[in-house]
Amino acid sequence: MLPMPLMIILASQLVTRTIGRLGPRPIIVFGAAVGASGLLWLSAITPGGSYWSHVFGPLAVMGFGMGTTMVSMVSAATAGVPIRLAGLASGLINTGRQIGAAVGLAAVTTIATHHTEGRLRHGVPQPEALTSGYSLGLFIGGCVFAVGVPVAFLLPRLRRPQPAASEVLAPMRPVDGDQQAVTSAAEV
Question: Name one GO cellular component term (predicted).
Answer without folding.
Answer: plasma membrane
